[in-house]
Amino acid sequence: MTTSTETEPTRAKPTTGRRRAYRRDRNGPAFWVGLVILSLIFVVPILWMFLTSFRTQVDARRIPITLIPDEITFRAFEIIFNEAQNPVLLWAFNSLVAAVLHSLLVLAISAMAAYALARMQFRGRNLIFVVLIATMFIPGFVFLMPNYLLMDRLYWLDTIFALVVPGAAGAFGVFFLRQFFLSIPRELEETALIDGANTWTILTRIVLPISRPALVTLGILAFLGNWNDFVWPIFVLFSPERMTLPAGLSSLRGAFAVDYPVVMAGATVAAIPVLILYAFVQRYVIEGVATSGIKG
Fold it and tell me: Of 16, 84, 144, 286, which sits with the fewest C-beta atoms within 10 Å of its C-beta?
């Protein structure tokens, strides 16, 4: 009996054609035109803010609007950096301290809670996770009054604790890190258990170092959320010297007329640290988002 040595020709995977079509589309002119338009949508407002901070008051109110100022002046920056009237540097320092402490607290709480929900087996784990996710659909303004009353009972009003603690146990951070922890192979943790490591050692020595991109991403998001927060600091801070930058900049608008160059100069000062920070950590942010798969 003879056996046939002929093999059936291999069939290309269905996704191969899709990938090639995607690569062709990505290299086409329509793709790059779309990227340019999308980039302009984000860049033009930032450029307008920066250039307006160097305009005169008359030039900022002129119609029709022009992108390039007729006369470049540093009057707006001289006003906002006048320490006697507008302690912008002090507000920026307050925002920096609050945002850094808040980010560290978010990472600590989210990492421990996420690891427990991802790896530990206990009764009601899935129910807790579902309830946690459900809180993400509640508008943030609903928590303003309960959090204010809690800060009042704890005597934390007009203190840095009111800026750091609320929101540190947010559902998004727990969800984000849990999904990343689920993508880590269990074999690494099982090997550590055989070597005698406990749960805390596994979390701090194995899981967290591997999860650096996700941790950096979550830390940046928490930092930006706290740095840009405007409503909550106005609620809980009363002393001008304890204001954060977004809340303090609201006083630059004036009582009767808005000085647009001054407001834009303040916004530029608030945006520059964030842009510098993102320039250094964008690689980790992209990697963290790309590797955080959605798993059950």
Answer: 84
Using the 8-state DSSP alphabet, how is residue 11 labeled?
Answer: P
* pTM for the predicted model, two decimal places: 0.79
Q: Over the stretch 192-225, which tens digit does the pLDDT of each residue have?
A: 888 888 989 999 999 999 998 899 889 999 999 9
Q: Are 189 and 207 in contact (CB under 8 A)?
A: yes
All structural domains of the chain: 16-78 (no CATH), 87-291 (1.10.3720.10)
Please tell me the distance from the alpha carbon of residue 245 to that of residue 51, in angstroms, as a whole number: 20
pLDDT in tens, 165-177: 998 998 999 999 9
Amino acid letter for position 69: P
3-state secondary structure 147-180: HHHHHHHCCCCCCCHHHHCCCCCCHHHHHHHHHH
The distance from CA 82 to its chain's CA centroid, rounded to whole angstroms, is 31
C-alpha span between 245 and 164 (Å, rounded)? 15
